[in-house]
């Protein structure tokens, strides 16, 4: 009996987080090396940028499924241009893109299946109803790594952007990587470009680490997002650079009545050492879909450059949920039109069935040690009259404004406090009440 248990342990991948830290960026994910490796070329793939390799990727993953209980396996993609439609990953798999390897998203619609909308959204993000499956998918997996020696995954989003713009999109756009209901996921050492919609979308996941990735999309495109953390917990995003048309990093958790019913928050996430540019969106956005709640998030050491908004909290009546216990610290901003924004009037509902009495809670938001140069507007905080945003705490903030004429701050239905903030904030943010810190945030601050 004991022998059988030992044998079972030997055959099962040991996946765990090293150290006891509850801070997701301090807990290193330890994944075993894969004893087996195969190259995509063994499945007949051709890296000329023209031949469609969708079946090769699907067959390779199907074959590697049989290694899941034998220590897992690696699918190696060598240098070349590998055109493919949507394919799935499997547990205990590493997808490794060698130097010079480029995976290209196909423009052939027959290579893209459609799937049900996410239950926490009730419909696709672009159009009601179904959505296209993403280029690289994980569903109900454990121990998955997407990495490489700076290989590239190019979503070739132009076709999807055109379809969105000209109204011919039948289903909502795919993402480059979507991992759903999975645990222990690493994305690292890669370049992603031109996402049809989002670049990396962990949804209903735990223990996700995204390290050392570079993500780009043309600036003039408003509808592309970098990393979207959605109803997921224990997430670390670090050492990455993101240049996006819309949001660089967004935290979400479902949309109105669908998200309230699904009720899964995004919590315990850390984002640090990132360079972000968001031409028409926000470098870091909380919401607007946040109906399952967003809490216990730390953002630190971010450079926010050439962006429309720096840090933004978005919500609206009917959303329910909460955004609370957020710390944003040690940030440098340059050329940002609005450094901080918090709005309770975002609007945008999945359908007419939302409950207007479902009011979101926004509280305990700390913004600390932030400097900015060439900032258009310092901050605009417009809460909800029946349920104002509370405990908004600003400290050690110094912004140099590009215009001196316009009012740097606008506030309504918000309560908070400030110390050492320049330019001087509005009265609503100068109440003497101090912030109530969550246990993690308090520990972090006491330590610093
Ligand atoms: C991909 O995974 C989904 C969900 O498990 C499944 O429905 C679909 O058939 C899979 N597609 C392929 C090509 O294996
Ligand atoms: C980041 O990834 C590149 C390859 O993409 C690698 O050369 C570099 O060493 C990595 N840096 C870190 C800090 O992991
Ligand atoms: C990674 O690849 C991208 C695109 O090919 C390139 O721009 C970048 O310089 C590379 N980074 C490293 C660290 O090699
Ligand atoms: C919309 O854009 C797509 C992708 O470029 C194109 O195939 C389609 O013909 C366009 N439709 C219209 C109505 O312009
Ligand atoms: C990323 O690259 C760095 C430097 O080469 C390496 O130490 C690290 O293990 C890589 N990460 C993964 C998951 O391969
Ligand atoms: C959502 O889940 C939390 C626990 O995770 C629970 O306390 C709360 O009552 C739930 N809310 C709803 C609306 O079901
Ligand atoms: C404030 O943030 C800057 C930029 O990240 C950092 O260099 C500095 O050490 C921080 N100051 C304090 C007192 O933490």
From TrEMBL:
This is Uncharacterized protein. It comes from Melastoma candidum.
